[in-house]
Amino acid sequence: MKFLKEKLRRLFTSRFLKRSLLVFAGTTVSFILLFLLFDRLFPVPLQRLQYSTVVVSSDGSVLSAYLSKDEKWRIKIRKEDIPENLKKAFIYKEDKYFYYHPGINVFALTRAFFQDIRARKVVSGASTITMQVARMLNPERRTFLNKFKEIFRALQLESHFSKQEILEMYFNLLPYGGNVEGLKAASLVYLQKKPVDLSPAEIATLMIVPNNPNHFKLGINNPTILTERNKWLNRFAKAHLYKQSEIDQPLTEPLVAKRGAMPRNAPHLCNRLIKQLKDANYIQTNIEFNTQKRTQQVVLDFVQKLALWNITNASAIIIRNKDHAVVAYVGSADFNDVKNQGQVDGANALRSPGSALKPFLYAMSFDEGLATPKTILYDVPCNYDGYQPHDYDQTFKGKVTVEDALLNSLNVPAVKMLSKMDVNAYIGLLENGGCHSLVNQEKKLGLSLVLGGCGLKLWELAGLYVSLANNGIFEPLRWTKDQAVGKPVQLFSDNAAFMISHILTEMSRFDVPANIEGAEDFPKIAWKTGTSYGHRDGWCVGYDDKYTVGVWVGNFNDAESPELSGASCAVPLMTKIFSTLSVYNDFNWLKFPKGLGVHWVCTETGKIPGTYCVNQVLDYYIPGVSTTETCDHEQLVYVDQNEKYSYCKTCLPAKGYKEKLYPNYPPDMIAYFELYHIPYQKVPEHNPSCTRVVSDDKLAIQYPVNGTEYLLMKNESHELKLKCSASNDVSQVYWYVNDKYIAKSKPDEAVFFTPDDGRLKISCTDDKGRTANVHISVKEI
Predict the structure, then answer these.
(1) Are 202 and 255 in contact (CB under 8 A)?
(2) Model pLDDT, residue 239
(3) Closest Cα to residue 465, out of 501, 489, 499, 437?
């Protein structure tokens, strides 16, 4: 024992050992320095890792994919895309010691070296997964020199990347024939599945092909692949990667793999996002995959039924209200329909929204104290510097409430309301609500804006309606998972939002679908329609507390269709889509705000009841904001016993008179009655002998002269003057040409208009109900 210890002591203190250790250390240091030098001079060629851009749904399902810059289908796989059983299968087959070696397997390399020497060519590469990655990053002929390059690259990869990262590179570069590379791309192209959904048989199939893609061609050599697949499945069972019971079924599983097209779901949205996020390889949207598929099918089926009406397309969007996420987006009925321009994105196209902007005008009027739901408006002829709005059916309804005007989408009351407000403030509200398309149209916008005199995109309009569902608060739509939450903007109060939503849930309205009776699946929602001028666009946006659904129906070639309207086409589509989301039995989702009040108002004006108000109704109001004006719909008038004359206090006789209530109609309502010969209770003409009133209280047209023919020069602009005389108790007069309203003015004010050829009837009505007419003729010479 002492002898052995002495020998060891001499060995470790000998010059030979010291020299050997120094040589080993020097060699190691030299090798490390040389490796670091080559690592700096020849970095890992990662330029080959150019991935396809892929757009996925919220659960990771692929919506659409786009070729990489080198024209490959190479979809980047992520850690969460690789199930554990898939990882084990590939490692078992390709590199059992993957997690234990530094990139090369020295024992396997030594064995392969002597085999290759004997054969005088490379017959066994002993390649680890890391070495395979090195070869796939820089493909070259299989030679001894290139094998040493692979070894260097493998060590280099292991020094820079983790095992997980190297494994992901491996799965991303595996060749599957043609321009398909990577496990995820192959899984989608050949099996139409995500890697996490692959069965053991499908995993074995995709594990075999990369060894010889030219021999194992999926869809062509399936029988050969099937035989090889089953061999490996049995090996997995023997290696206890799977239980035998887990292999029995996959062994009988048929191989139906064939090359198919990449998924093309939500193509319009994906194309938009690709343009916006040019450098992104992976875009995760908020699209709910199943919701998107259902919505696309509903739109397609619905449009096919509209073909008889020459309506060929539709678009739809679904927004989740709580986080403003877009969960479904359909740009057209069929993206591949070339005949009907299916690749046009209707949800992102500028179209006239018709009456769909009216709810926001009335919400604004509620917050400004100008109106409440029961406030009375007057749907009668009006003229604003030549702009003469009229209702959809070309008629006027006379006296209506705000809620009736909104539910029945009356145009004149909306224009009158906007005329009382600041148009720029209304434009500002819409722009703050995400309608950014209006910015470039501001110079052209006026009172017609509220009737659709502008261009908006469906997603802008639907995003604006989300604010009604969210207590008047607007936030930008969220298209992708990583998109930052936008800054909230309070467009209008929660009180105004509630009142508008409460109105829009009413079922007594013109745009309720005809087959609503007994429709148990009709969603309990609030909704508003819009129809553009000329029947080119039909709109409907519906919402509850969870979702907002917006739809557009029309033709991308801008063709008109008499049957096209929001009520007849857009509402049924919107409700069909909504019914696939949820079903409600009542309107309990609509919550009453704490700050909202309820009081009685007069049904004649919607104002606080006065002395003579008999009929009253409950109405919502905003305390401290809504008007507290008392109703004056009736006035007390002194008349003689025969009710032929009325008296003022100046001419009131000592006796022989009585008091009587008369309706206190506004002047434009009186003019409406007179124009359409609608009977109404008039205040008797004033006492002709009263000193406060001129003796001649008749209304007379001074110009043009009755029975005169006016000659006008062709190709020149000519205007005729309208002038009247009226009693001094008249404050306004209303002018009509051929019974069409053109203007209002003060009694002593002249009005000018451009006449047409032919006979014309000129009419003037004062605010007391008196009317005068003249007839003239106009001829161009």
Answers:
(1) no
(2) 86
(3) 501
Q: Pull the structure tokens for residue 251.
A: 């062994």
One-character DSSP codes across 460-522: HHHHHHHHHHTTTEE---B-BTTPPPPPPEE-S-HHHHHHHHHHHT-S-STTS-TT-TT-TT-
- Chain position carrying tokens 């016993």: 641
Task: List b or e across 544-573, with b for residues whose CB sees 16 or more CB atoms inside 10 angstroms.
Answer: beebbbbbbbbbbeeeebeebbbbbbbbbb
What confidence tier does 570 reach under pLDDT thresholds 50, 70, 90? Answer: very high
d(CA 354, CA 450): 8
- Report the chain's terminal Cα–Cα distance, integer Å: 141
DSSP code at position 80: G
**pLDDT at 358 exceeding the cut of 90:** yes
Closest C-alpha to 330, from 262, 264, 267: 267
Helix pair 289-305, 571-579: axis angle to 10 deg: 150
- Supply 764's token pair: 């003037």
Q: How far apart are CA 273 and CA 291, in angstroms?
A: 19
pLDDT digits (tens, 9 = 90+) for 734-775: 888 888 888 888 887 888 888 888 888 888 888 777 788 888
Q: Which residue has the tokens 């408006």?
A: 377
Q: Is residue 406 within 8 Å of residue 459, measured between CB atoms?
A: no
Q: Nearest to residue 191, comparing CAs of 107, 131, 258, 281?
A: 258
534-537 contacts, C-beta under 8 A, 24 or more apart: 534/560, 535/560, 535/561, 535/562, 535/563, 535/564, 535/565, 536/351, 536/352, 536/560, 536/564, 537/351, 537/352, 537/353, 537/354, 537/564
How high is the mean pLDDT of the chain? 86
pTM reported for the whole predicted model? 0.83
Residue 466, pLDDT score: 97
Instruction: Give the gyration radius of the chain's Cα atoms.
Output: 41
Assign 242 to helix, strand or coil: coil
| C-alpha dist (Å) from residue 265 to 50, 150, 190, 745 | 23, 41, 17, 60
138 within 8 A of 132, measured Cβ to Cβ = no
